[in-house]
Write a structure and sequence with these properties.
Layout (H helix, E strand, L loop, with lengths): L1 H7 L3 H20 L1 H4 L6 H20 L4 H23 L1 H15 L24
Helix pairs in contact: 2-4, 2-5, 2-6, 4-5, 5-6
Pfam families: DUF6114 (PF19609)
Keywords: Membrane, Transmembrane, Transmembrane helix
InterPro entries: DUF6114
Length: 129
């Protein structure tokens, strides 16, 4: 019950997918580490973008109120990661777009269990005529 209330108070699945995307994007330049740190190599951009996307996924877990802007950054960095890390062979880019979309679409639910979505009419209707 405590995990369920914790999970509902933050964008868990968007954050998890974003973290997986960042790790996939990091995987390509880490496996090419001999050429990553050569002067003029753009694989360093893959390290930077993969690390930033992983950090964004973690930040979305701890600061759920800023999930929308973090989702926008995730989508932006995921598309740009194609330049330096091939976007984790494009699978990381696709996961980043899905995770960013989930972060943007997430909204904080009600914490009050008695509150429901029904509309209550508090005033009498105006009599016409």
């Amino acid at each position: 019950m405590r995990f369920k209330s914790w999970r509902q108070s933050r964008p868990l699945w968007g954050s998890v997918i974003t973290i997986i995307s960042g790790l996939m994007i990091l995987w390509v330049p880490l496996n090419l580490y001999l050429s990553t740190f050569l002067p003029g190599s753009i694989a360093v951009i893959g390290l930077l973008f993969g690390g930033l996307i992983t950090m964004i996924g973690l930040l979305a877990l701890f600061f759920p109120q800023s999930a929308k802007i973090l989702g926008i950054f995730t989508m932006f960095l995921s598309v740009l990661s194609v330049i330096g890390a091939l976007g984790g062979f494009l699978v990381g880019t696709i996961f980043g777009l899905i995770g960013g979309s989930a972060l943007i679409a997430w909204r904080m639910g009600s914490t009050d269990p008695d509150e429901d979505d029904s509309v209550h009419v508090t005033e009498d209707p105006v009599r016409a005529g």
